[in-house]
Write the structure tokens for this entry.
Amino acid sequence: MPFYSYDDVLRISKLIQEMPCEISEELRGWNWHNPPLLPAYTTQINVSDLSFSCQTGRLAFLRYKMKVKEQGDERLHFGSFIHKVISMATSTAKSLLYSSTMQNGGELYEKMTKRMEDILSVRGLPESYIKAFKALWNRAALTYASSLDKVLELSKYLSIDGLVSRVVPWICEFPLDGRLLGLNRAVRIDALVPPTLIIEFKTRRPNRNVEVALAAYALIFECSYRIPVNHAVILYIEFAPDASSFKTYEKVLRIDDSLRLEFVEKRDLYASKAYLDVDPGLPADCDPYCPYLGVCRDGR
Ligand code: SF4
């Protein structure tokens, strides 16, 4: 991990089967047109904003009413970079598999390593970003190369589409439209394993707000496709201080009624503060990762 093989998908499916989850019909995404899911305001909130704790909702007031630019700190920039690398490594593996016939995983590993050297030779990245890039890219190359060997052992006569979907089982940055639920129209899920396994990557510490945002993705998916999503996965990726290595912690989550109701409460709080002309003020404690710390608390 964090790159999933087909075996990882089977492992997660088994885990999910062992985690039953009852969900009330009115809290399914396809019931967006009835309370409590029906949005009370017309403002569309970014799902990523739900992953920050701002108990007064000032975050929404600043972003949507006052149009204040966020001042994300270095940790948020690094997190965004990690998302891009995972997505790029995944799409590169797919494009290499589609564009040439490979006899074994070693060939894919070599081609991915060469592509990494090409990318790094033209990008002027800081040293820590280069180390993180190499660590992640190498993990992707190893995971997908090993998967290719397993798939080729299974059969040498798979169609190219079938082969690629077995070697690289997820789609990164899967697009959804969240407007019916009062959310942004250009929502992107970090990774989707068809048909319904939603996966979110996080370089922040585990917290409940991240889970609330994940519930938003599940509800939008239900709203769009009318397919139940009872579980989802968060992959917490923790880098060493010099960024040359990382550990991944996997959390399989129930998207249960209480999490769905927390989503509704937070969405409605943020939407109301985005709609009204009143500054709600600062809460007693601010989220240490909030992108507006530089605006509200002078970066502290
Ligand atoms: S810095 Fe504090 S008050 Fe300002 S938006 Fe963030 S959490 Fe809210």
